[in-house]
Structure formats: structure tokens, C-alpha cells
Amino acid sequence: MSALIFCVGTVLGYVLYLLMKSVKRPANFPPGPDFMPWVGNTIQLRKEARASGGQHLVFEKWSKEYNSNILGLKLGNEYVVVALSYPLVHEVHLSEVYDARPDNFFLRLRTMGTRKGITCTDGQLWQEHRSFAMRQMRHVGYGRTEMEQYIEKEAGSLLSYIDELKEEPVWPGSFLAPSVLNVLWTLTAGRGIGRGDKRLQKLLELLNRRSKVFDICGGVLSQMPWLRYFAPNWTGYNLICQMNQEMHAFFLEAINEHRASITKENAESDLIYAYIREMNGRSDEAENSTFSETQLTMTILDFFIAGSQTTSNTTDLALMMLALNREVQQRVYDEINDNLEKSKIPLNLCNREYFPYTNALIMEVQRYFHITPVTGPRRALRNTTLGGYNIPKNTTVLIGLRTVHMDKAHWGDPECFRPERFIDADGKIFRDEYFMPFGQGRRRCLGDALARACLFSFLSKIVHRFRIELCEEDLPSVVLQPGITLTPKPYKVRFVQRS
């Protein structure tokens, strides 16, 4: 009997120890709400995010409540720190101690159970493959004239598609994503994807659902992955598995086609050929090489996810703001028309500098809507400090871009949509250090050159040919839908041919 009592007492003591440990904050950890036993702040964050309209708004609320621009949380078993001011965000972006990514269930699930690709990796693998992928993408035209030619061609196809709408009310978000992906897929696989391709439509639908089900922390799948056994649909587990299966089949078809057709002449003509060439060249060291079919698939996935939503969503929001702000739309049109008619400057990507107000409009849309209000996640590679607080090794660090883009002390009137803020006294684009939609440093977004070029080409050509007019039904809302990225609610406009 005494032995039983001892065993029960030992078990209870151990459980009590674990409970106390689960609610204890690390020494000099950033301020934030108290940790709940076992789950930390997971339930509280999800509840308040649903009520307020997004995780980023909860972080801003807690920042005011605890009078701190840095928050310390615990989500499941992970310590999480959120940086919410320019100096802190700038330090996280540029300091090598925050170059790593978390290694959790959600990020591995995103890359089909592996820790491959570029976006969700770190260390030697990340450095080697980021360098290789960007070098090869530049070789086939990324950020250069070849890419601009692809974009100009796709912009022409986009105008033809809008022409076929015959001024019928339409939501731009329903047709923009394929235009961006066609450019990206041409660089990746050497050809575009037909707008009517049913596989493409299925993948875009899955990506859109994914962006709404999860948040930057990965949702409950990251903090409580065991829930997938009891609620696979509610947690989004089935959605991710379906998306992985569809994408893997789509990418594998292209990879196999390239394997069967590779020659010395085309071995560097697109990203897939370049990876296959590199894999073949390292066949003697296959066991130690990081170049594999899985790594190639995950790298394509990274580019696919990056290019499929943020650029098309930003274009969608820019068209919405042009419809809502007729004077801004008129000023963009006048700038384009004056350059074309009076100065005889062609409307192409080589001449972007001659269209400062159009560029300022794009920048203001990115600042005002900040469709990635919280970025990251990063992981602290060692014990360090941030803002005077201790950051334990392996802490997940989130970056609050919205708070930087809406900092009243810096911008003055951040709630006002005003493209002029990005134009200096000489009428040229003003480069504001607080403006960072693509991040900074070594982890800067891979697709920034593609995004900026697509945004300018698509928007300028649409405005030059069409007036964007509101419809009485399905009016736009500037309140976006929360998720991994913020997305506009469906609305409708008319594209009216200019005379």
C-alpha cells in the first residue's frame, strides 16, 4: 500500500512539476499575457484573432496593453516573440542570429513532410540552394530583359481576356493569379500554363483555401499537431495533404518531361533543366549531395506559393483602390497618357522611372494593405537579446510589418490612402526606409523583382486601356480577410474601354 501511495505521489509530483514549468516565463522574457498550462497562449490568441479580424490585430492590441513593442508568448511548447517596431524589425531582418526557420510540424507538412526547398530551410542547405536557384533564375532571365518580355507578353494576354468580358461586372481576383504564374512557370519550366488548365484552377483554389485556414504561426497544426487525428478537416490537415498531392503530381509531370528531353543545348534553358543537370553531374556523390528530386520539387513549390497570391492580391487591391478613388485613377491615366502622347515614352518596364505616380500608387497599396502583416517565422540560432529582453535559443520570432507601415509617428497619416507620400519635391520616387513589403536582408522575398515588374506592367496597361468603374452591387471593402496573407473580399467592377 505504501509503495502504491509513493508511486501515485511521485506521478502527481511530476505532473505538478510539468504544469509549473509550462506556465513559467523564461528570465527577462518580453512582456505578454500569462501562459495557460500546456497550451500557453494558443487558445487565447485564436479566440481573440477570430473576434478582432486577424492575428496581427491581436498583437497590436497586446502591444498597447503591455506597453511594449516586443511581445513574449508561448504557443503550445514553442516560445514566440513578436517584434512590432521599426528598430526591432530592422534588427531581426539583418541579424544572422535570426536567419533560421522553426522546425515544427506545420512547416514540415507544408513541404510534404520534409525540410527541403528554400523558404522553410536554413543553414548550409538554404544558402546553397538559394544561391543556386537565384543564379539559375537570373540565367534564364529573372530580373532581366527576358523576364520583362515574358511579363509584357502576359500583360497583352491579360488585356485580351479583359476585352472579352465586354464590360460585364467581374471580380479581378478571379482571373489575375494565372497571369503571374504564367510568367513564373515560364522561367521555371520553359513554358506557360493555359488559363483554362483545370489542374491550375484546382491548385489555385487549394492555395486560396490554405491562405484562409492558416495563420503565420501555422494554426493549431503547429502547436497541437495531434489534433489532426481527431479533426483533420477543422485543423486544415486534409487540405494541406490534398494540396501536397495535387502539386506533387503537377510538378512531377513537368520534371519527368524535362528528364526525357534534356540535351546539352537546353540544359540551362529553365530552372528544372538546370537542377536535373546539377543532379546528373553529382551522381557520383548522390548520398552526400543535397540536389535531389525532392529538393527540386520543394524549390518549385516555394516559387509557386510565393508567386501565386501576393502579387495577384496586390494587383487586385490596386484595381479596387483605383475604382474607389477616381481622382487617383485619373492621375495615373494622365501620367501614362502624357508620357505616351507628349514625350513619346513607350509604356514598358524599361521606362518605369518616367511614371513616378504609377509607381507611388503601387507602393501605397503595399503599405496601406500590408497583405503580409506579420512575416517570418524566424528562429533564434542561439541565446540572444532583442530590445533589452532575453531571447532563448530556438525561440520563434515573428516580424510585425503592419505596425511599421502604419506607424503614426513616422507616416503622420497612415490611415489615409495617399500615393503622394512616396514622391519627393523633385517629383521622383522617395525611398522610405520604413517601407519594406518584401522584407530586408538575406531572407528578403525571392520574388520581389517579379512582383514589382508584374504590378507595374499589369496595372499601367489596364489603366491605359480601361476605366475601372464600381458596380452598385458587390461594392469593395477595405477590410481584408485574415489568414497567412490578407486577401480582399470578392467585389465587382466594370472595365470600360477608353475611347
From TrEMBL:
Transmembrane segments: none annotated. Belongs to the cytochrome P450 family. Its cofactor is heme. One of its GO terms (cellular component) is cytoplasm. This is (Mediterranean fruit fly) hypothetical protein. It comes from the Eukaryota. It comes from Ceratitis capitata (Mediterranean fruit fly). One of its GO terms (biological process) is organic acid metabolic process. The keyword Oxidoreductase applies. Heme binds at C445. One of its GO terms (molecular function) is oxidoreductase activity, acting on paired donors, with incorporation or reduction of molecular oxygen, reduced flavin or flavoprotein as one donor, and incorporation of one atom of oxygen. Keywords: Heme, Iron, Metal-binding, Monooxygenase, Oxidoreductase. Gene3D superfamilies: Cytochrome P450. InterPro entries: Cyt_P450, Cyt_P450_CS, Cyt_P450_E_grp-I, Cyt_P450_sf, Cytochrome_P450_fam2. It holds the Pfam family p450.
